[in-house]
Amino acid sequence: MARNVVVTGGGTGIGLEIARRFAEAGDAVVIVGRRRAVLEAAAERLGPTVTPLVCDLADPDEVEAALTTLPARIDVLINNAGSRETGFGAGPHALLARWRGDFERNVLTAVLLTESVRDRLTPGEGRVITISSIAALRGAGSYGAAKASLHAWNHFLAAQLGPSGITANLVAPGTVAGTEFFGPRLDEAEVSRRAARTLLGRIGETGEVAAAVYFLASPEAGFITGEILHCNGGELLGR
């Protein structure tokens, strides 16, 4: 039976590959993001079962407006939207903008949508999967702190949803190729440096993260909740 799946940040990178994985399985997928052209192009590539929805998930008014378009029943919710705030310069005002921006784009985007659709999650089968980062465990300033906040929130969410048979888990990738996150910083030398930090001698692929998400959304993962699935090639162990 086809499921209703919502993927935030579904227009590029990891989110696009997650949406592709579910669409290829025959599920109805809504991809959510801020850039209309990017979302519409992604939906066209992925096929007729994928619907684009433009929404700034850090804006509660836009989230509320999006509820009229989102499915009345949501089987799988993937909170993938996020970014790293850069280019603010020095000084306390710049510091505030960077920390506030990272919190809004990585935490509020997940919390506002999830709390708004909690009553639509399918009892007994629903899945909430949120994309974290190795930065939450390694430490990486405001971005790492924001992603670490998702870990505490997910523990709370899992406890809240558990009585309804709904699971809530995180996937924490390491360095992954094929995303917009690093921009030009991820050149050949940087890829080699990061690959050397892993046990496998390479960085990850977006499809590998999508596979981890797809597993956590499967019926076989129904007894896993409140957990962090690390997808980092052994770059960081035992946390």
UniProtKB/TrEMBL annotation:
<feature type="domain" description="Ketoreductase">
    <location>
        <begin position="3"/>
        <end position="179"/>
    </location>
</feature>
<comment type="similarity">
    <text>Belongs to the short-chain dehydrogenases/reductases (SDR) family.</text>
</comment>
<dbReference type="GO" id="GO:0030497">
    <property type="term" value="P:fatty acid elongation"/>
</dbReference>
<dbReference type="InterPro" id="IPR057326">
    <property type="entry name" value="KR_dom"/>
</dbReference>
<keyword id="KW-0560">Oxidoreductase</keyword>
<dbReference type="GO" id="GO:0004316">
    <property type="term" value="F:3-oxoacyl-[acyl-carrier-protein] reductase (NADPH) activity"/>
</dbReference>
<protein>
    <submittedName>
        <fullName>3-oxoacyl-[acyl-carrier protein] reductase</fullName>
        <ecNumber>1.1.1.100</ecNumber>
    </submittedName>
</protein>
<dbReference type="InterPro" id="IPR036291">
    <property type="entry name" value="NAD(P)-bd_dom_sf"/>
</dbReference>
<dbReference type="InterPro" id="IPR002347">
    <property type="entry name" value="SDR_fam"/>
</dbReference>
<dbReference type="Pfam" id="PF13561">
    <property type="entry name" value="adh_short_C2"/>
</dbReference>
